[in-house]
Amino acid sequence: VKSWADAFGGELYSIVTKYSGSLLLQKKYKDVEPTLKIKEVDGLELVKKFSEQMESMLRRKVEAVEVQPRGLQEGSPLLFDYYNSLLINEKDENDNYVELGDEFILEPNEHFNNLLVNTTYSDIQLPTNVYNK
Hints:
Blueprint: H1 2-20, H2 22-32, H3 43-73, E1 107-109, E2 115-117, H4 128-131
Antiparallel strand pairs: 1-2
C-alpha cells in the first residue's frame, strides 16, 4: 500500500504541477521578488477604506445621472469641446497647442496601474473619422 500511495502521490504532484502553472508562478515571483514589499495590513481598515471609496464613486455616478435629465428638460444646448486624444499636450512650432489638442494635466493614478491619466474631464470615445476636422 505504501508503494501505491507513493506512486499515486507522485503522479498527483506531477499532474497538479503541470496544469496549475505553479512552476511558472514561482519563476515569475523570483524575477520580481527583490522589488516586492510585504507589509501587514488591518483587514477591517482595508475593507472600510475600500467601501468608502466605492460609496464615493457610486455617489458621484448617481449625481451625474440625476443632473443629466434636468439639463435635457430645461432644453439646454449640448455644448462640448472635442479633443483628439492623440493631440493632447501637443504644441506647434510657436509653442501653441495644436488644433483639436489642448493642455491636459496627467497624473499617475492607482486605479490605472499608476499610468498618467487626466481625471478632470469625462469623455465619450468617438472614431476619429466621425468628428476630426
